[in-house]
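Hi R.,

Here's the chain you asked about this morning:
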Amino acid sequence: MAPPSPSPRTTRWTSPLPPPLVRELYAHPTITTLHNLYGPSEDTTYSTHAITNPTDDRTPIGRPVHGTQALILDSELRPVPLGTIGELYLTGLGITRGYHNRPATTAERYLPNPHGPGRLYRTGDLARWRPDGQLDYVRKSLPEHMVPKQLVPLDELPLTPNGKVDRNALPTPTPAAATRHEPPSTPTEKLLGEIWTELLGHGEIGVHDDFFALGGHSLLASRMVSRVATRTGVALDLRLVFDRPTIAELARSLPELPEHTEQKPIPRLRRTLGRS
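And here is the predicted structure, written out as tokens:
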């Protein structure tokens, strides 16, 4: 029997495509072209495409497919220079609406696009632009939706007769008790409450209310950090807002303000018409 003639092939690989595997596949007599496709489920299908080269030291994930735009941004959602590592954001026709019944996670991952129409999806992946216009995948951060929200201690795991974990026998986690409304009381809490009200448009915000459950997202979190710095002189780390998304938790990260803090008004500039 004659060997099959060479033909283009597409190989599915669910993790970063290592260069040794690329070279191994190209060594196969029936493979002439190897395509590398990247894309999270939140972008429906694939987001980027590359035709691999066995001589590459790193396998790129390529360029955005038709109808998709990729952006490499810093923590302030600003584009980073060529070759600089940043977080990969996607926008375009394939971006989904969000996570069902998970408003906080949706608000963190799906953001208004400050660079154009539509929404941004925050992949959590680190990447950079190569000089040839392709994306270089660096590594993956742990997505928020993969971090456990509740842990249930067990003396031992229930097992099936085959020795595997019996998921049907696992106890159902007891929902955490609903937090009671507690208005801001300290000067620091009150200041944060005022800033949250300005940004979120809610009248009564309690110190245990979650910023993202109230409709906040990364762009608003960045604005909150900026306003806190303007009014207190303290530069909060943006990541702290995600780790401590309530007024009570954030207030512990700020110095206690005096009881009567008088905010300095911003001077209004006067325009002077030039004389001809």
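One quick note: Helices lie at 19-26, 103-109, 187-200, 218-232, 238-243, 247-251.

Cheers,
M.
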